[in-house]
From TrEMBL:
One of its GO terms (biological process) is GPI anchor biosynthetic process. Ethanolamine phosphate transferase involved in glycosylphosphatidylinositol-anchor biosynthesis. Transfers ethanolamine phosphate to the GPI second mannose. SUPFAM superfamilies: Alkaline phosphatase-like. It is found in: Endoplasmic reticulum membrane. Coiled coil: none annotated. It comes from Lineolata rhizophorae. This is GPI ethanolamine phosphate transferase 2.
Amino acid sequence: MTLGRRALLVLANALIPISILVFATGFFPYKPFLPGLAEYQKLEYGDPPAAPFDKVVFMVVDALRSDFVFGEGSGFKFTQSLISAGSAIPFTANARSPTITMPRVKAITTGSIPSFLDVILNFAESDTTSTLANQDSWLAQLKAKEGGKLVMYGDDTWLKLFPDTFGRADGTSSFFVSDFTEVDNNVTRHVQGELRQSDWNGWIMHYLGLDHIGHKAGPHSPNMLPKQIEMDNVVKQTYTAIESEPHLQSTLLILCGDHGMNEAGNHGGSAPGETSPALVFMSPKLKKISKGSKCPTLPSGDFDYYTKIEQSDIAPTLAGLLGFPVPRNNLGVFILQFLDFWDKDDDRVQLMLRNALQMLTIVKETFPHPAFENPFAPVKCGNPSSAGDELACKWRTITDIFHSTGGFNPAAAHILPPIVEFCTYAQDVMSSTASNYDVSKLIISICIISVSFICAMVSVRPFITIHGSSRYFGALLLILYSIMMFASSYVEEEQNFWYWIASGWTAWLFVYHARQANSKDYRSLLLVTLSCLQMLISLRLVRRWNQTGQKFAGAPDIVAYLRQYPTHLWLLITVYYLYSALRRGQEYFAGNGEQAEILGRGAVISLTAIELAFKLAFTAHDAPELTSFLPKAAVEGLLGLPLVGLARVLFIGLTGSCVWLVWNHHINGNAGGFSLLHSLHLLLLSFLAVQTRTENVPLYIIFSLQYSGLSRLSPTPSQTTLSSIVFAHASFFALGNSNAISSIDLSNAYNGISGYNVLAVGVLVFVSNWAGPIFWSSASILLLCERASRPPPYDPRAWIKEERARLAAASGGQTTVRGDKEVTKNRNSFSHHVGILTVFTAGSLLAVMAACTLLRTHLFIWTVFSPKYLYAMAWGIAYHLGVSVGLGALLWSTN
């Protein structure tokens, strides 16, 4: 590779993060909002009706899915008794995607529809740009009331969103998912004291433990029911005080989830379980309007219990029940069941009319129409051509009724339906209105990534031309992948694409290497056949390990079987650790004498024992059902082990081993015949296993089988690079990942960390989710080096002659002598490797950006394409630049 082509490759990689960030700023802008606090409009209809409540206790249980409260197996027995008695009114709230805490809290408090950018900001613990300090909300309205004071305990997302809002507060990091108890005890310890206080009119509690249990072990974890009972006891304690304490007589208690969770325990996407949190209004006063509902009960659909409302409806409902104006940016509709609190029809009409007038202000900003300003302006209502015309027609219906009756006193039965119809239609239209994309930035970023793609193509063109027919398969791969990005169903089920491609690529390798083998040497042909067969069988196991995506996420898979038979799971895990110990034990202290080698094997065995102990203790804490086969004393001993300390010992041990291997290699070279690169690869594999869910640890045995089969073929450099692309993506989905935000695994985010650290947690989260691709990135470097040190399994002399001819045409080749054989080593292999990876990365990013731009008004833009772009950002910056280029260069330098 000439200097000019190297410069083009550097430029191509430098343009990748630039294009990604430019596109993000145009694709994920903040939605505009109306500043300031709303005030009651002076209407001719009189003062707003009196509110039935003057205080609210707002209790959020993170990830409180509807069936956790309303289902047969619920631990919320006291809450269910209130629902049956009529002291509580239940709902299922529709939490729109993205089902992440920060955007859901924004929707609950302001009634608006947050930007998808909040998904990114939700993970930025130190972010302050997402504040709602200048935006209207029911918290701001409560505080603005005479004597208004707010208190908050729990998830510090509230403190970040509402700075300088709370008179008393105690926040807890929402990302410390290893903790099930302290995050909740930190809230509950304040309950008794606050119930005795009378100086507040708004009290927020946000519990996190139930969400953490879901992330670690799923919704069916044995820890889930005790946590539900614990939360129900908090409800009982609070409700009992409302009944008995005079200063709490007009207090409304609300229990709700900010979002739900899927069957894997995660959230962020649009699966029914994620979008269906429970919502319960509780007060002795509710008996006036409710005769009670059967509870527990069965859902009418997937997690749909009782009446289903929009989560944004909470804001205007609280405005009416507590007596303050509807927040200015609200898109919610007052919950009609609560209108029965007001006996007069005029009061009911006025409540809904004020809600409609507030929403009309937002509608006029988006759909300026003469009918909204002039009640006599002409409107085409027979066949409206747009959503704006339809809204104008519905508003005209309301104004015509008022004008026809000559005032504000039409019968409620006559005027309420048109007002409710306008509000619900406006809510639906405005909630689904496309974001204010900066199309110019989208086009600029597409141009930048196109330049990156062209530069990468030019830089590796001679290498691709020399290395035969692999380029056709690579071109077909990129073309098919690009086409797939324009179909939402294919994006949701992307794992199938990579499984099919991996099978096809293995078959192509068999044909290629079988043709290259000496036709008279059946042993070579048999070796090629067995190697490819081993890869195909391994790939079949990988495909069945975790069912992911959307359609088959709950289908039976190997992990489900292993959860039923944990002894089989731990047998496989033990096999992995024995394999790891044997491989590393052969290399540590090699070449330093027999005593040093014995000492090295002892160190490896000790470190492996700690790895196994950590995995057992970790599982005993988070998924005790997977350690139920152990004696009770053994489980108690595991629960007593300090997880943070064990993880730190592991990380220190692995780091120390790395330092020793580098030093030993510097002193003794490839002592014992083991390369430093191979030793470091095994250390990396151990680190990846630490950061992997327990059920997925045996996958590394299968990945190693795939690698060994590929290694015996001795693939060409271009075949190695394409193999790393194909198997890296297949392994990503095999670990249970998908293109949904809900599949992000946070369970190992705090290994060795006792508190939130944005850099450390970010790295650990990335490694946990991209462990499979990281394995294949390291393996590809190892394969490139093996190719340079030994011939393929067929006629070595013919291969050397062929390789010399190829490399003679390309600059940068050199010939080295190892023993009695001449072998060819291309010192530019890594540059060419990075070049092909850059071509694929830039090409795939171009396809994703183009799809998001062209389909920005698509129905699934926020549920499918936007999450896909977030994953593309991670693949392009963290994986390609950080792992493939950064870590790959570091590993290559050890060769």
